[in-house]
Amino acid sequence: MPVGRGAPFHKGHSVTDLMRNVRTGLGYGLAYVAVYCGFVLMLALVKGEAFFVAAGTTLPGVLLAYLTGGIAAGCVVGLLLPLARTKLGAAFIGFVAAIPVFWAAGMVVGTPQSLTAVLLEDALPLAAILGPAAGLFARSHFGSWPVLPRKRGSSRRRT
C-alpha cells in the first residue's frame, strides 16, 4: 500500500498520526521556547547585557539557541512519541530530545568550540544526566504524553 494520507506505515500507525505527533511535539517545544525566552528577557532587564558578556554570550545568541533547540527537541518528541507508552521509552525520548537543546546552548555560551566538541563534551553528557528525568517527568505529568495514537478500534487512552 502506498504511503499517503491515512495510509499505515507501521503497526497500525499512519502518516497522519505521525504528522499529528510532530505537530504536538513542536507545539510543546515552542511552548518551552516561549517560557525560557521570557525568563531570559526578564533576566536581561534585571541584570543587563553585562550578565551575558560575563557568560561569554549575547542575549540574541541565547534566544536563538533556545528557539533552535526547542524546535528540534519538539520535532524529536513528536517523531518518537509512540515510544512514550513505556517509562523506558519516555526516558529515551527525554535523552534524545535534550541533545539538540544542550547542543544549541553549548554553541552560544563560553569560548567558541567545534560542533563535535560541543556535542561530545557538553550536549551528550548533559542530555544523559538530565534528559531521561525530564522524559519521565513529562510522561508522569501528561499521563503518558498528551497525544498517543490509539490502536484501531480502541476507545481507551493508554497510560
Write the layout of secondary structure elements.
Blueprint: E1 8-10, E2 13-14, H1 15-47, H2 49-54, H3 59-80, H4 87-108, H5 115-142
Antiparallel strand pairs: 1-2
Helix pairs in contact: 1-3, 3-4, 4-5
Question: Mind explaining what this structure looks like?
Answer:
The chain has 159 residues and is mainly alpha-helical. Strand 1 and strand 2 form a beta hairpin. It has one domain. The protein contains 5 helices and 2 strands. A two-stranded antiparallel sheet has the order 1-2. Helix 1 packs antiparallel against helix 3, helix 3 packs antiparallel against helix 4 and helix 4 crosses helix 5.
Unreliable stretches (pLDDT < 50, length at least 5) are 1-10
Strand order of the largest sheet: 1-2
Helix fraction bin: 55-70%
Class by helix and strand content? mainly alpha
Main β-sheet description: 2 strands, antiparallel
Number of helices: 5
SS strand fraction:
under 5%
Distance between the termini: 31 Å
Please, how many domains?
1
Number of strand elements: 2
Indicate the overall shape: globular
Radius of gyration: 18 Å
Query: What is the helix/strand order?
Result: EEHHHHH
The residue-averaged pLDDT reads: 82
